[in-house]
Amino acid sequence: MDASTLIFAGGMSLIGGALAFVGVFAWLAARFSYPQILDGSADEVLPRLRTGGARLRAIWTIYSLLPLLLVIGAFGTYAALRSSREAMLLALVLATVGSFAMCLGLMRWPSVHWELARAYESAGADARRGIGATFTGLNLYLGNYVGEFLGELCLGGFFLLSGFALRAEWDFPRWLSVCGVLFALLFIVGAFRNVAPRVQRIADLNNYLLPAWMIVLGGAILWYRLP
User: Fold this and answer.
1) Under DSSP, is residue 211 helix (H, G, I), strand (E, B) or coil?
2) Is residue 132 classed as helix, strand or coil in its secondary structure?
3) Which class for 138: exposed (0-12), middle (13-18), buried (19 or more C-beta within 10 A)?
4) How far apart are CA 184 and CA 157, in angstroms?
5) How far is residue 15's CA from residue 223's CA, in Å, rounded to a whole number?
6) What is the spatial distance between Cα 12 and Cα 80, in angstroms, rounded to a whole number?
7) What are the C-alpha distances in Å from 157 to residues 10, 29, 114, 126?
8) Number of domains the chain is built from
């Protein structure tokens, strides 16, 4: 695959992934109280997950796969920012690790949580306490630590290195680099919300900034690198 094809695929993946993220996020927010429901107990969440049926499960499946588009986007960005090969190689690794971490975190919903929701329906009081403990543990490990903290920290590293790499490209406007670095710093700070609740507002803001910057970055590499 030549560089132009890779850049095109990467740019379109960043833009398409951003639009898909907004659409799925909005659907889950309207019909599943997402992301507020992430703080709910098993008694509250599992019955609602089960009630959502196959459609809700399918939406969660789609949502869990969307981070994979960031891997393609990272390859395209790597191919586009030719003046910073070493830094962008590290950025590519970080984006790949972060994307898979996010996938693992989100995949708990249509898989393990779905089965927990099925078992919860007919479980007795003692069994429900066990299911609740499993539900909480999975949210803490796969959700908070793997998906949110590790995933967002690595992805923030990708955006930070990409932001600095944009500065080394003479044909990219300087404001792109400044915006990329500023967004990346906010994204990294937001990743610490589970240990520093004061940054929760920044994390909430990042839900809007992330798709916006993905569209800007994807559009930039398409505009400035393709003939």
Assistant:
1) helix
2) helix
3) middle
4) 7
5) 13
6) 13
7) 18, 27, 32, 44
8) 1
Place of tokens 């993220």: 21
- For residue 69, give the 3-state DSSP assignment: helix
The pLDDT, as a whole number, for residue 99 is 98
User: Which region holds residue 33: left if phi is over 0, alpha if psi is between -120 and 50, else beta?
Assistant: left
What span, in angstroms and rounded, lies between the C-alpha atoms of 213 and 175? 13
> What pLDDT does residue 195 have?
87
CA quadruple 169, 171, 175, 180: dihedral sign: negative
How far is C-alpha 31 from the chain's CA centre?
A: 20
Tens digit of pLDDT for each residue in 8-64?
999 999 999 999 999 999 999 999 999 999 889 999 999 999 999 999 999 999 999
Residue-level pLDDT at 140: 95
The whole domain housing 128 covers: 3-225
0.85 exceeded by the pTM? yes
Q: With a cut of 50, which residues of the chain have pLDDT below it?
A: none
User: What is the predicted pLDDT for the residue at 66?
Assistant: 97
